[in-house]
């Protein structure tokens, strides 16, 4: 199997189980309706583990552009393969979203809440706030890549690594996921969001494109930052690159802060920050 096909299949599996658990606990008349956040977090944890188990031997099972770019930024993955991996991941995620749609075909029209339908495909913030939402996704993905790199440096019983990675995703979901739905993966959000926009889902809303850039850009920035922190803190290398990238991060957050402040002043002229 080619590395790119492996990333398509692995990411598809990730979304079938991950998007599937969200649909399963939220869509009306599902036998799992009302399963709650813990079920969702565990479902995504298992989704990651199963995707990694399926294709890890072929491509390393990144299944996530933030992982691919994070590894490449510290020299653990060739930059020449990065574009192909990212395109493959987005395609796989879109296919996975389509499979989720087909599996729950009879439940979309039974569910009136259009936000719930979108949630089965992509993330949405609990409290819309450009700066805070970006920060949440940045932190969660930075932690993900920092720990993921650390896991890779340890020796486990053969075949256990994917399960440990699944535990990591579960921990992030249980502890950090309530703010934005913890995309921590641009492909996981963008591919199914495109599927949501294209598929004839009964009673669907818009695909919330004004928000869509945050679960793409923030995980990319956070993933690279987390990897650079690992390289500097754990391996004692790349301090200069980390310092330079930290300046970039501060500039991005500074711009977001002032944009957020401007928007608040425009929408609430009597509020002074």
CATH superfamily placement: Glycerol uptake facilitator protein
Radius of gyration: 19 Å
Mean pLDDT: 95
> What is the CATH class designation?
Mainly Alpha
Molecular shape: globular
Question: N-to-C terminal Cα separation, in Å?
Answer: 56 Å
* Structural class by SSE content: mainly alpha
- Strand percentage lies at under 5%
**Roughly how much helix do the residues carry, as a percent range?**
55-70%
Transmembrane segments: 6-25, 37-56, 85-104, 131-151, 163-184, 211-233, 239-259
Subcellular location: Membrane
InterPro entries: Aquaporin-like, MIP, MIP/Aquaporin, MIP_CS
Keywords: Membrane, Transmembrane, Transmembrane helix, Transport
What this model shows, in words?
By secondary structure, the chain is mainly alpha-helical. It has one domain (3-267): Glycerol uptake facilitator protein. The chain contains eleven helices and no strands. Helix 6 (130-152) packs across helix 10 and helix 8 packs antiparallel against helix 10. The model has no long low-confidence stretch (mean pLDDT 95).
């Amino acid at each position: 199997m080619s590395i790119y096909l492996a990333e398509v299949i692995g990411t598809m599996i990730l979304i079938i189980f991950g998007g599937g658990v969200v649909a399963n606990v939220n869509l009306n008349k599902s036998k799992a309706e009302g399963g709650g956040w813990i079920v969702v977090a565990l479902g995504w944890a298992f989704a990651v583990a199963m995707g990694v188990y399926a294709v890890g031997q072929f491509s390393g099972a990144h299944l996530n552009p933030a992982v691919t770019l994070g590894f490449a930024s510290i020299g653990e993955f060739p930059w020449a393969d990065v574009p192909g991996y990212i395109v493959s991941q987005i395609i796989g995620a879109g296919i996975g979203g389509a499979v989720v749609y087909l599996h729950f075909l009879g439940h979309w029209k039974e569910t009136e809440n259009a936000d719930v339908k979108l949630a089965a495909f992509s993330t949405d913030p609990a409290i819309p706030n450009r700066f805070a939402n970006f920060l949440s996704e940045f932190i969660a993905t930075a932690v993900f890549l920092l720990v993921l790199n650390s896991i890779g440096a340890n020796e486990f019983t053969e075949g256990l690594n994917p399960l440990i990675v699944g535990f990591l995703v579960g921990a992030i979901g249980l502890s950090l996921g309530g703010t934005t739905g913890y995309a921590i993966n641009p492909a996981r959000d963008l591919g199914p969001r495109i599927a949501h926009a294209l598929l004839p889902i009964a009673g669907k809303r818009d695909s919330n494109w004004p928000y869509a850039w945050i679960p793409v850009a923030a995980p990319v920035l956070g993933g690279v930052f987390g990897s650079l922190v690992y390289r500097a803190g754990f391996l004692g290398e790349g301090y200069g690159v980390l310092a330079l990238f930290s300046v970039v991060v501060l500039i991005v957050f500074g711009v977001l802060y002032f944009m957020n402040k401007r928007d608040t002043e425009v929408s609430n002229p009597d509020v002074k920050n």
